[in-house]
Design brief:
Length: about 260
């Protein structure tokens, strides 16, 4: 899926969603251990080393049952348990700052992402001594919906010309409303769900708006851009509708820096 190119803040990380923390209501708690059962699958061999990288992260589930990643550990927990940034909380500060290079091999050369996720869980329990408990919390969310006069989205198909360049000051390079909501959640600091009714359709999605104010920064002089809500309505015929929803949250109780191998 193409990624949004957003001038001036294209390196925004999932940590931006931490601003919702003050708006969360805890509904219930279930204490569990991160330790997998004895029969749980694990990597045949795994190497974990501090990374020299200062920016970015990646996860690669490679042919031959190989796994390669460079990331901060909070994001590794997200990938291992299939949850979003706002669903992992607690633990020491280095969970979101210190990056590690992880290289691992599964016993089966046919292992893919779904098979390696529980292996990552076992790796976190074994090498990082991860312990957590699980709660249900209520979060403020948005639904992306069609405005009263309907969506105004430009149809697009592979091979059609693109109007997205590195000099654009708007969100571009997106071709589905699902990709749009994935980009919007980092801008608005809360989960966003696609209820536009445009599943399976492709568009050229261009959104020119005041990215600076939206991200809590002071815009430069002569920065004459519409607000995000105005741009969604006027340019795409869409709007954000506020709501609340409950999600499971993994609360880190304890974790240790890993033993290198």
């Amino acid at each position: 899926m193409p990624k949004a190119r957003i001038k001036r803040f294209e390196c925004v990380t999932p940590v931006a969603l931490a601003i919702v923390a003050g708006l969360i209501l805890t509904l219930g708690s279930q204490r569990i251990t991160a330790a997998p059962p004895p029969s749980a699958p694990s990597f045949e061999v795994a190497s974990i080393k501090p990374s020299a990288m200062q920016f970015g992260s990646w996860f690669r589930f490679l042919p031959g049952g190989r796994f390669s990643a460079t990331s901060w550990i909070k994001q590794v927990i997200q990938v291992a348990y299939g949850v979003e940034d706002y669903q992992v909380t607690g633990g020491p500060g280095w969970l979101t700052t210190d990056r590690y290079d992880i290289e691992a091999n599964a016993a089966s050369a046919d292992a893919g992402k779904s098979e390696m996720a529980p292996m990552l869980q076992a790796l976190l329990a074994d090498r990082f001594k991860l312990q957590f408990h699980k709660e249900t919390r209520e979060f403020p969310i948005y639904h992306l919906v069609a405005d009263k006069n309907g969506p105004r989205l430009t149809p697009w198909k592979p091979g059609d010309p693109e109007h997205c360049t590195k000099n654009n000051t708007f969100v571009c390079g997106l071709h589905t409303t699902a990709a749009l909501v994935s980009s919007l959640k980092y801008m608005v600091g809360r989960p966003v769900f696609d209820q536009t009714g445009q599943d399976g359709k492709t568009f050229e999605i261009l959104l020119d708006f005041d990215t600076e104010t939206t991200m809590g920064r002071t815009p430069p002089p002569d920065w004459n851009k519409p607000s995000l809500s105005a741009a969604l309505r006027e340019q795409l015929g869409l709007r954000l509708e506020p709501d609340k929803a409950s999600f499971p949250v993994y609360v880190v109780d304890s974790i240790q820096r890993p033993t290198e191998n």
